[in-house]
Design a protein that fits this description.
Blueprint lengths: L7 H15 E2 L2 E2 L6 H14 L5 E4 L5 E5 L6 E6 L13 H15 L7 E6 L13 H7 L18 H8 L16 E9 L4 H5 L3 E7 L1 E10 L15 H18 L3 E10 L9 E10 L2 H22 L2 E10 L2 E2 L2 H15 L5 E4 L4 H7 L4 E6 L15 H20 L11 H6 L1
Parallel strand pairs: 5-6, 5-7, 7-15, 8-14
Antiparallel strand pairs: 1-2, 3-4, 4-6, 8-13, 8-15, 9-11, 9-12, 10-11
This protein binds zinc ion.
C-alpha cells in the first residue's frame, strides 16, 4: 500500500464541480432518473474513464466501478449521488466522490489484494419510488416490490409509472444481487445530518449501525360538516390526526424511539368545512427491534383511543419497514483507529437514526461500517447543508485509511471464492 494518501482537496474540488453542474438556486436537484441526475452520472462516468476500472450499471440503476484486485473478493466503497429536491452538496455525494478518490489513489499502486468497487446507489432518497434505499435494497435482495404498487413519487405520480419510464424492469431487478457476490466489506462515508458531533466538538465518528424504521399510512375518517355544529358533536378527522401525531411523539419518547410525519392530506381541505378525511404517512425509528414491535401495538391503541374521543374511525396500510442493522465490530474498530490516528483524539462511536445504503449492505451479510463527518447545525436535505472543509478532509482521509487497513488484512491471504454466505442467499 502506497504512502501517498488520497487527495482530499481534489474531492472537495470535485464536489464543488458536481454541485455547480446539478444544482439551481434552491440546491441540488439530482433526483434519480431525472436530467440533473443523469448529468451527475455522466460526470462521474467521465471521471472513472480516466482510471483502469470497469464500469457497469445494474438492473436497479446502481453504478459499479471495479478496480480488479489479485483476488475475486471485493471491498466496496460508496454511497448515493441522488439528492432530494433542493438538497445539499454533501449528502450522499461525499461518499461517492471520496470513493472515486480512493479508486484513483489505489489505481496508482497496481492491483490491490482484493478488488475494490465503487458503488453509486440509485434512488437512495426514495423521492421517485416512495421507497428509501431503493437501489441498495435491490442489490441486497430486500426490496419489497409489491409495496411499490401503492407508492407515489414526490410529485404525485404512481411509482410504477416512474420506474417504467426510467426503464427499470421489476421482473429482473433481483439480478442486481449478483453485484454483491464476493463482497468482503462495505465502507460508506457520509455527513452526519445531525448535531451530535458538533456538540461533542468532534470532526468524524465511527458509526455502529442504522436504526430500524416502520412506516405506515393512516387515514382518519370523520363527517363533512358546517362550522355551526358544536365542536363537541363534530367528527373532525383533522383534529383526530393532530391528536394522534402529538401523542405519537410522546409515545416515541417513552419507548426510546423517534417519529416523523411530513405528509398530510386533508379532505376536502376547505377552511370552512369540517374535514371528513385526513390521511398521514408516519415513520417510527429505533435501534431496537423489540421497541419497534412495542411501538406498533402502542400506536394502534392510540389511534383507537383518539378515534373514540373524536367520533372518528381509522384505517391503515403498511408502507415500508426495515429492521435495525448493526455494523461489523472489527470494521467499527478499524474506523475508530483511523479517526484516532488522524485526529489524536478518541473517536466518537454513534448509531445512525437515519437510513443509509450501508444498512442494506449490513443486512445482506456484508461486514459494514460508516464514517460520519460533522454537519454544521445538523442541517441537511437543504441547500444550507454545510460541513467545514477541514472536517471533510479528515473524513475523506479516514475513509482512505479504513480502506487501506481493510485491504491489509487480505494481503498475502489465500485467494478465496466468493462470500459463501451470499452464494447461499443467491
Ligand atoms: Zn444520504
Amino acid at each position: 500500500v502506497s504512502d501517498v494518501p488520497a487527495d482530499a482537496d481534489r474531492v472537495l474540488a470535485d464536489l464543488a464541480e458536481l454541485a455547480e453542474l446539478t444544482s439551481d438556486a434552491n440546491g441540488a436537484q439530482r433526483l434519480t432518473w431525472t436530467a440533473p441526475w443523469s448529468e451527475a452520472r455522466k460526470w462521474l462516468t467521465s471521471k472513472l474513464a480516466e482510471l483502469p476500472v470497469e464500469v457497469d450499471v445494474d438492473e436497479a440503476s446502481n453504478l459499479w466501478a471495479t478496480l480488479q484486485g489479485r483476488d475475486e473478493r471485493a471491498l466496496i466503497v460508496g454511497s448515493h449521488i441522488d439528492s432530494v429536491p433542493g438538497g445539499g452538496r454533501f449528502d450522499g455525494a461525499l461518499g461517492v466522490v471520496a470513493g472515486l478518490e480512493v479508486l484513483r489513489r489505489l489505481s496508482a499502486d497496481g492491483p490491490p489484494a482484493v478488488s475494490v468497487k465503487l458503488v453509486d446507489f440509485a434512488e437512495e432518497e426514495g423521492d421517485q419510488s416512495g421507497m428509501s434505499l431503493f437501489g441498495s435494497a435491490a442489490a441486497a435482495g430486500t426490496l419489497e416490490v409489491e409495496l411499490l404498487q401503492a407508492n407515489t413519487s414526490y410529485d404525485g405520480r404512481p411509482a410504477l409509472e416512474v420506474l417504467r419510464e426510467a426503464g427499470v424492469a421489476l421482473e429482473v431487478i433481483d439480478r442486481a444481487r449478483t453485484r454483491l457476490e464476493g463482497a468482503v466489506a462495505f465502507v460508506e462515508l457520509h455527513i452526519e445530518q445531525s448535531t451530535r458531533l458538533e456538540h461533542a466538538g468532534a470532526a468524524v465518528a465511527a458509526v455502529t449501525g442504522t436504526a430500524g424504521v416502520d412506516r405506515h399510512h393512516i387515514r382518519f375518517a370523520g363527517r363533512r360538516d358546517h362550522p355551526a355544529r358544536p365542536m363537541g358533536e363534530r367528527a373532525d378527522s383533522l383534529v383526530a390526526a393532530a391528536r394522534f401525531l402529538t401523542e405519537l411523539r410522546a409515545l416515541a419518547q417513552e419507548h426510546d424511539a423517534s417519529t416523523l410525519c411530513g405528509h398530510l392530506v386533508v379532505e376536502p381541505n376547505i377552511p370552512l368545512v369540517v374535514a371528513d378525511g385526513c390521511g398521514l404517512t408516519f415513520d417510527i425509528r429505533s435501534f431496537d427491534t423489540a421497541q419497534l414491535a412495542t411501538m406498533e401495538t402502542a400506536w394502534r391503541e392510540l389511534a383507537d383511543r383518539v378515534c373514540a374521543a373524536e367520533r372518528t374511525t381509522w384505517t391503515s396500510e403498511p408502507r415500508w419497514r426495515i429492521e435495525p442493522a448493526a455494523f461489523d465490530e472489527e470494521l467499527v474498530q478499524l474506523a475508530a483507529e483511523a479517526i484516532e490516528e488522524l485526529t489524536g483524539a478518541p473517536a466518537p462511536r454513534l448509531g445512525s437514526p437515519q437510513l443509509h445504503d450501508a444498512g442494506e449492505m449490513a443486512r445482506a451479510g456484508i461486514p459494514t461500517v460508516m464514517l460520519f463527518v460533522q454537519s454544521v447545525a445538523g442541517i441537511s436535505h437543504s441547500k444550507d447543508e454545510f460541513s467545514h472543509p477541514g472536517h471533510l478532509r479528515l473524513g475523506i482521509q479516514a475513509l482512505d485509511r479504513v480502506v487501506s487497513k481493510t485491504l491489509a488484512r487480505f494481503d498475502g491471504a489465500q485467494p478465496q471464492p466468493s462470500n459463501p454466505l451470499l452464494k447461499r442467499a443467491l
